[in-house]
Every structure is written in C-alpha cells, then in structure tokens.
Description:
The chain has 12 helices and 30 strands. By secondary structure, it is of the alpha+beta class. The strands form 8 sheets. A 4-stranded antiparallel β-sheet has the order 3-2-29-28, with no helix packed on it. Strands 4-5-6-7 form a 4-stranded antiparallel β-sheet, with no helix packed on it. Helix 2 (21-38) packs across helix 4, helix 4 (364-400) runs antiparallel to helix 5 (402-416) and helix 4 crosses helix 10 (524-534).
Amino acid sequence: MMMKKLIKGLQEPLRAILGDRLALIGLAVLLSIVAMALFAPFLSTHAPLAVNEREEGSLMVRSVEEGQVRWNLAPALGEHTLNDAYYFNGVGMAVGNQGVVWRFEEGEWTPQENTLTETLNAVAINAQGDALAVGENGAMALWREQQWHALETPTAVNLLGVAWSNPDVAMVVGESETLWQLTWQDDVLDIEVLESPVNRGVTLNAAAVDADESVWVVGERGLVLRLTPEGDVLRERLPTNRGLNHIHLATNGAGLIVGERGTLLTREAIDSDWVAATSPDSRAMRAGWITEEGEAFAVGRSGIILERQDDGWTLADTDEERHLRAMMVTDDGYYAIGSDRFVNRLAPPSREHWFGTDHLGRDLFSQNVHGSRIALLVGFLGAVLVVLIGANVGLVAGYFRGRTETVLMRTVDVMYGIPFEPFALILVLLFEPSLFIVILAVSLLTWRTVARLIRSQVLSLRERPFVKAARVAGASDLRIMYLHIFPNVMPLVFLELAIIVGVSIIAEATLSFLGLGPPQSISWGGILHNARLSGAWREAWWWNLPPGLFIMITVLSVFFISRSLELVANPRLRARR
Length: 577
C-alpha cells in the first residue's frame, strides 16, 4: 500500500518534468553529467593525476636585443628528441630518436627521409658534404649523393660519437670502449676495430678532429684518448676525473670539453694545455661549441646554456626547461638543440590534451571528468540526507506541535545562526579533510529550510478529514505521519530535493576551493583551488574555465528541473497555468 502511494506520488513530478521544455533540457544535461561520472575511467584520455611528459625536437635560437642576450624557443623540429647536430661549410645536420634527420641550409630546417629507425646519437659532415650518422645497436648511415645509405657494422653496440679525420676516413666511438676506424676506398667501406690502451669497457661519448688531423675521444671517468695521424692510440691526462660527454675543436686548435657536474675544460690553441674553468652551474653539460674567435657555449639539462665571456662563464637567460643535447654555431646564428622528454606544464588545449595541462603537467580534461564524481556524489547524497533529516524534523514538529514543535523549531533557528564556511572549517580542524566531512557539513546546516517548509505543510494536512478519520480508526501516530501525511508532501520533498542537489554541489565546490575538501580526491572545486595556489590561474584560462562551466551547467540543469516541480508543489502556480 505504501509503495503504491509512493509510485503514485512520483508520477505527477515526472509528468511535470516531461511537460516542461527547460526541465527536459536540464534533465538531459544532468543525465549526461551523471553518465560522464559513471564512465569517467573510460572517457578520460589520461590518468588524472599522472604527470604528462612531452617529447619534441626542441630548438632554441640566440638573439641580442638592445645589448641583452636571450635564447628564445623556436618552433620544434618534429616530435622526436634530437641528440646531436653538426655544421660545416654552410650545411648542418641534426639527428635524433627513431632515425629522425633534419637538414639545415640557408637558414631553413627540412626533414630528411632515412631508412634507419634506430635512435641516432651523433652526426658529422666532411669536406665533400658527406654526412655520417651513428646510433643504437650499431646503426650507421651515410649521406651521399642526396640520399641516406644504411651501413653494415661488426657488432650491435651502441655508437655515441663520430668524427671525420679526412674525406675518406672517419672515427666512430661508443660503449665498451668501442673504437672503429672507417675507411672508404673506391666506395668500398672497410671497418678497422682499434684497441684502446685502457681496455676496461669504459663508455666513449664523443670524438673530434684536431687541427693536426689527430682525433680526440672523450668518455666516462675522465677518460681521454688521442688517435695520432700515424694510427697510434694514446691516453691523455686532463685535469678531471668526471665523466666527459662532448668535445668540440675549432679549425685553429681552440677546444672545449664538457661533462658531468658542470665540467668545462678549454684550450686556446693546439699547443696549449687543457685548463679547467669555473662553471656557474653544477648540472651536467651535454654538448659544447667553440669558435675560432674564442666564443664558447655549453648546453645541458633543464634548459641550461652557458656562454664564455671576457670575465668567464655566465649562465644565459633562457626561461625554458627543455633538456638540451647539442649545440650548433653557423655563419649567421647560434642554435641549442634537444630535448629529452620534459614535463608538459601549463600547456593550452591541444589534440593531446583537450583542456590543456596544469602546472604539474597533469591532464585537465581527465581531472574534470573525474571531478564530476565528487560533485554528484556530494550533491545527491548530501541532498538525500538533508531531505531525510529536514522532512522527519518537519513531520514530527508539525504533527505533534506543542513543546516538541517549540524545541525543534528553536533548534532550526539556532542552525540558521551558524555560518556555513566557519562551521565546515571547525569540522575539518576537529577531524581531518575528507569526503565524509564535506557531506556532513552540507547535511547538518542545509536541512533547516526543508524542516520549516515540511512543518508548514504538515500543520495544514493534520487538520484534514482523512487524517482525523485515520485517527478515529485507531491508526498510530507513525502510521498517520508516514502513510497518510507524508505522501501528500512528496511533491514538496522532491522540489526541495532538486534544489538541495544544486546547493550541495555549490557547497562542495566552495569547501574544496577553500582547501577544506578531501585532499586525495579530484573535484571541480579542488581544480580551482589548485589553479589559485599555483599562481597561474590569471594566465591559464583553460584551467579555470572548464570546472567553472561544469559547476554552472550542473546547477543550472538542476534549477530547471526544480522549476518544473514548483507547479506540483504549489497549487497556486498550477492554477495560473
């Protein structure tokens, strides 16, 4: 009997919603947001709290404006990391992951087709314009006659450095103290495996040709080798034991070696000694370049670029965090090239991140999708608890009246005097931020209005003939309240339920925005809170706009639904229609 009355009470609110165009739109929007919350793991394009990294061929260009030197980020060279670059006689080459090759000529970068797909670590160009690129698993490719030719190698060792000693001879170095001398005779390649005087399996990172056609090789543990024009491999003693990553020698004998922990070794001429310089930064330097005029540059991780001036080495102004791996100086410009994978911080909306990323590189679309769960959970659960408390208090106060009504209504008056945010703050201080505290704060303060409205309705209904008849028939007070009176206040209950859903969503967003929400959960208010704390919310509009729109659309849809239910709850409005 009770169930039939409840079902009958649901029919009229449902007919009211279906008969109102705005209510139908609100219902469709609300159901869409509910579906988004239910299927959030499937709709998310990324893990909501995962830091997203990005890989690209980063390119930074040096400029001098009003006497101020700056390195500016230029359009990326593709979507893969570039590991090395070389410039000679008007032509430059840059190589990187997955066999990527870019050619530089007359100030323009153009991608080159390459048969290799392995990561390429180093490239060098000879006087005839031939380029030799080497990489992982023994990968080698020769650029000759306007195309790349894959070369067979003795073993699949990782190759890390290459240098041309003359147009027909090149030196290739790599892991496990690999020393290969490549010689071309009538287009026939001969590879000679040379013995290292150390022979301890040390990784050799780079090679460069000196003005006397000897080849210098640098590697881990401060190891430096020199291959003389006569073919002897000698070990050189330099003033460092740190790992050395790159060497560059100018045609007049000036030299620069860079390495771990900011290591900088310079040589002014071929007959000069190598001298350790004081570095302004202790991070690893990955590559360097020195010109015949004595200009020197070193690049490294986190966008570090060092320049040598008259008074020593200085840290250049870059404002970027790209990991730089190569340096290239041309006749007209200076280029720093990278990069390893870097955190995609504060990126605007793109195909990869539809709502952009936050200051930690986390995907904001996925966060907003998952944030709907907390908003709807607090909205519906909080509304149910509010209506449950308020309806029962209103029923008891209106039905029994007298002292019971006085006590309950004075309690309601006291609750009206408690401000919401300070009350929630006290709860958080007494316990700890959690979803339960948010729902509790919403429930304990919002039921007061529902109790007053239900009480006013019950005061009228308790004097109706059907209630008096039930009382004469011997029905208990509980039976009269919940079986005879409550079904008649159901329209008002549903109206308040719809209104409180919107109020609860706004309350949760407010608490989360103030930092009182659950710390490990994602919510729309929490997204706005993180944007405010980051200090980037004024510039990163894509961070603030989506959660604000979601809150507004959700509350507005609930308002449209509650607007149609007023016709059921208020007979005067129904009569006007």
